[in-house]
Amino acid sequence: MRHEDAAKAAVRGLGVETASWAYANSGTRFKVFPQPGVPRDPYEKIDDAAVVHRLTGAAPTVALHIPWDEVDDYTALAAHARDQGVRIGAINANVFQDDDYKLGSVTNPDPGVRRKATDHLLECIDIMDATGSKDLKLWFADGTNYPGQDSIRARQDRLAEALAETYGRLGADQRMLLEYKLFEPAFYSTDVPDWGTSYAHCLQLGERAQVVIDTGHHAPGTNIEFIVAFLLRAGKLGGFDFNSRFYADDDLMVGAADPFQLFRIMHEIVSADAHDPAQGIAFMLDQCHNIEPKIPAIIRSVLNVQEATAKAALVDADALAKAQQDGDVLGANGTLMDAFNTDVRPLLATMREDQGLDPDPVAAYERSGHFETIRDQRVGGEQAGWGA
Amino acid sequence: MRHEDAAKAAVRGLGVETASWAYANSGTRFKVFPQPGVPRDPYEKIDDAAVVHRLTGAAPTVALHIPWDEVDDYTALAAHARDQGVRIGAINANVFQDDDYKLGSVTNPDPGVRRKATDHLLECIDIMDATGSKDLKLWFADGTNYPGQDSIRARQDRLAEALAETYGRLGADQRMLLEYKLFEPAFYSTDVPDWGTSYAHCLQLGERAQVVIDTGHHAPGTNIEFIVAFLLRAGKLGGFDFNSRFYADDDLMVGAADPFQLFRIMHEIVSADAHDPAQGIAFMLDQCHNIEPKIPAIIRSVLNVQEATAKAALVDADALAKAQQDGDVLGANGTLMDAFNTDVRPLLATMREDQGLDPDPVAAYERSGHFETIRDQRVGGEQAGWGA
Amino acid sequence: MRHEDAAKAAVRGLGVETASWAYANSGTRFKVFPQPGVPRDPYEKIDDAAVVHRLTGAAPTVALHIPWDEVDDYTALAAHARDQGVRIGAINANVFQDDDYKLGSVTNPDPGVRRKATDHLLECIDIMDATGSKDLKLWFADGTNYPGQDSIRARQDRLAEALAETYGRLGADQRMLLEYKLFEPAFYSTDVPDWGTSYAHCLQLGERAQVVIDTGHHAPGTNIEFIVAFLLRAGKLGGFDFNSRFYADDDLMVGAADPFQLFRIMHEIVSADAHDPAQGIAFMLDQCHNIEPKIPAIIRSVLNVQEATAKAALVDADALAKAQQDGDVLGANGTLMDAFNTDVRPLLATMREDQGLDPDPVAAYERSGHFETIRDQRVGGEQAGWGA
Amino acid sequence: MRHEDAAKAAVRGLGVETASWAYANSGTRFKVFPQPGVPRDPYEKIDDAAVVHRLTGAAPTVALHIPWDEVDDYTALAAHARDQGVRIGAINANVFQDDDYKLGSVTNPDPGVRRKATDHLLECIDIMDATGSKDLKLWFADGTNYPGQDSIRARQDRLAEALAETYGRLGADQRMLLEYKLFEPAFYSTDVPDWGTSYAHCLQLGERAQVVIDTGHHAPGTNIEFIVAFLLRAGKLGGFDFNSRFYADDDLMVGAADPFQLFRIMHEIVSADAHDPAQGIAFMLDQCHNIEPKIPAIIRSVLNVQEATAKAALVDADALAKAQQDGDVLGANGTLMDAFNTDVRPLLATMREDQGLDPDPVAAYERSGHFETIRDQRVGGEQAGWGA
């Protein structure tokens, strides 16, 4: 019972940030399959995010992507979010969709392109100021496709320079979250390909620069929970971009490909009390829903994070520590597996009822009529997508 | 000297098929960077392919992709190709870019969609008849993104049914080439994910169904030359889609990522005399040139195949066989490496001069003025891309 | 309730074969850590296997490895097994631990070595005759370490020849199960590296040759349940070597690395009623317990297979089929996940009580005193290991 | 010509360290195939290393592994090396072959085991003092096999503590080289799994702690030359353990699996002038020759490093820099490939003749009679292996 209460408390405190672009159309290089009811502007994206929050009670913030979410008046956008019951989360800079960025943005050999890219990063901080966002999230598509195409080392110098200028512009209560990614869109080298690179730059920059772990951005065989544990120990874990993948990339709902891995990640988090909002770890979804309906997929993803967190909180920490200290390999593993094998859905249903929520947010969404509303009302105009 | 002559002869006989879509714009899911001078219709694509053939003497055929290369009169298109000195190669069916295909084409749970997809395959055979093409190349984007989304097994039944109907429509001198691919665009399961699946279906279909190896479509650690050797032994290797990749996909110039691998593949080919055109192996490029100029990249790719073939033909087969039989591990490996380490570029330059070609086709292209011509003339209209 | 009964019935019918060598010492190339109480001969291994069966009611057969389990009188060994309540399962041939096999066994360039290796395979059939075993399980360590070391293709010819001779010697009620493995101990090429190779040879051999899937022997990103579904459809799935691995090899308890994957595999099995013993699929454990106590690890592994099977049997097949047919991606996935997320341990505990077993076999083993007995009695002599 | 002279100079300055254990028997977990003539003690290993140096002029140092190379009098061993014309290189600590280390060495949950392990590290520094070695090379087999087995984070604390104590004992002219490894022998988590972890600890320790890159210890898809470039830029690259692998581990001759990768690595080295011995990068071989004769395999490996270095030195750096600055993707790649495609063997043969060496060290070894001598003389006693 004690553990169940702890699990409920752990989950109740956890806010999962949803991404504005996940409500918009997306696809692969082969095809984007448009869906009915998709938002046509940032306001409508926020409306959808608010629906997710109302149903789950667990998605209080929504991340923006600039320029996909470019508006004339960011203060008004933030106000709209507040009116809807949510807040603006991280501002995601986008320096990969202009023709200028063909050979890179902040690492481009051309100083003019670098200037343009860095200016965009600075502009994103302006938007943070206007929206109250505290996190600047940086992912760079920069890299090269062919050996020799550019100097790997010189690109690091350029990257460091742009990061330093941007970091210098941050307000005292603002952070820089630096993401890494093994590959794609660059095929040969990526300028921030792994956590080590991100960590090294963040260390150089200062306290308010931290690493973001995108769960789908690792080489096969990478132990992601090791990275979580290492960065927590070093005080350099800024947050997650949650999603899952079977092989190559990061487009599936978090927990869909390997729920045990998500549990292991949350076990590291809970073991370090890093689910406590006071610790400032950002738990963000960064997924695309190419063939499945977007809003219920996002609700399902929030629930998946909650379920993994609840299971992690159910781990009998004392028994685990004792078995570990005793070198009882099977006992320690068994203690962890006991928690994973527990069905936490009833517990979370109760928790939701305590919060005045529907115990089954997915079913509640189906009944809510929201989909029928947006399908019928959002006609005309242009559906939002990655390019808009 | 004897080996050098053999190498020249091997290379001289080898025709590399270029792909119409490689001359068009392409990119990643993040961005397509358009290039100046890109063709605006299939006729202009063929013009570019003809330039590659004139400069290399080694690219006599060009593959089409339907509907990307849809025209009113395929006989006229084939005649245009002949006028330009090239022929139509494989017809590539495309059943992945209609909204209907969101959940699959020939494996879709909806029989109406399956019918539509199979009809497209049959239509491609009509185009073969009209253009004189002998090869129907099939790649299916079909698969699922989430466990449970569809029955893996039922999809195989549907696939088998569509393939059988299509195979039955082939003329006596026409072939079906069935490609496989580990992943993408489907994230969880792919309906033809590996050579075993393609092989099993081809075996079921009959003699004129053969496997295509796309060099970029394998899991990490896969020994591709093993597959080449196995399929040659079984009489089921139909051809290659050449390209290269460092991690995930298949967009780089063949030989760019791992020239030693390409050499090992060609060593299996040459060891089995399968470079002899009489054996009917199709050597096709299937690459995209997202950031590099397209025509010179394609010329470079043709040269890479030629260089790997020449090196393979330089292997001292008798010495290799003896060392293998003697269990002389280092001697056998050394014999292979001797050929790989040889610089065959002078030999190929001589061969080209003997053929009345420029010894350096890339430089010849730069001097030819073709790029300036197409850049200036191909203005207005819409550049061809994957979607057109 | 109906589903729960189906789940119990599915699990009750399932026998998991344990491996004699799993009770013996094992390790990595770096070090074997010996454990107290390890068997010193095949009789003691069978004693341990019998303990696992008595506690789980689910491990009625034990596989042998020849020559690790060489005895003078196999009939006596089989009788001993019967006395202990178990039977001899598959006979595993071992043609990789003689100095002669440095460059291969049945694919060795030296015909004398091939003869010796094939003779060993035939001898294993003699042992099948003597013990009543129905399955000859073949795994070949054969392959090469360096490109060029041997002819990939010639090795296939030699393999086919040895398999044909061996197959010809099988009795009418005996099978050949051909395993495949991506890599190791060969570093460059493996002679049976993937399911396609095994399948092609089995097809050539005849009905009583079938493929064995070792769950730990695949390249990263391989969808194993696809292979299960494909082979079931083709009538060529002979069985499993169960184990799990995070990156490279296959030494962990089945279900330990990715319990969701094991569930998906058993979902394919249950969907095809292939858990029904009448279908003849062999469910075998092939694991090594290098640092954890062996017998409880094997019990845990049996339970893991049972839990995955129970969850698979809980899948609402009608709802799943409907969602799949309707193209309801989230609904279909959700139906599968509902079963996976269910805690089946109480259900299985009940089932065991119905069978007159302890509901918790691991705890029952701890209480049984067996470990203390073998620790004290099995002193002197030489502990069994991979080499003996 | 200028470039050729530069290439010769670059290669002439490069010393490749060979490993004492590479001269001894080794194998996989399945089997060690012993070879005739293998050394029986550290003195004989040094004799073989001296042969490699005499023939190549490029292998002046030999690394030791403690306790595999334990002797009573290390000063005498160092003197023996000097007499043979070589020096003692890095001292490699071995804390993975005692029964105590089953659950780890310096990260073991048991403080007594940690003490023992750290004491061994300190003892290795004593041996450095006695032999004149400047480099302490640390590789830890430490990790866990099962999730939950131990606290990932606590193990980092323990690791940091042991490293700090050891670092504190180093002399002013001694270094600590910290290796990382993705997996094996631990199957689930490894305590130093990637360069980021090693880098972070080295940063914490101080200037004389540096990262060692073992080329065979990376996840699929990892860009190793990126790591080289990054660590050079950060002043934290201590050296290499050279070898190559196709899939899983690290036992093949360097350059055997992917010669282009080795070239790209050496291109980063040469671009930073890091081949200059004054920069202190250690170029070490860490390979095992399981089926091929050891001494010629080691000679071949030294030549492979020389050839890659020569090719790297032939890169037209000015043309490359210009093409990179101009964004000329194909031009830049072509400049790199021109160097790679050059056959540098004649150039290196000339260089050797200039040095008074045989132009073909492998052939010279075959003719030298050394193998026949050791085969005949090294009889009786016990051949050295990984365990001795």
From TrEMBL, chains A, B, C, D:
Return the InterPro entries for the record: L-rhamnose_isomerase, Rhamnose_iso-rel, Xyl_isomerase-like_sf
Record keywords, A-Z: Isomerase, Manganese, Metal-binding
Q: Name one GO biological process term.
A: rhamnose catabolic process
The answer, when asked if rRNA-binding is one of the entry's keywords, is: no
* Leader peptide range in chain numbering: none
> Could you state a single Gene Ontology molecular function term?
L-rhamnose isomerase activity
Q: Which domain of life is it from?
A: Bacteria
Q: What is this protein called?
A: L-rhamnose isomerase/sugar isomerase
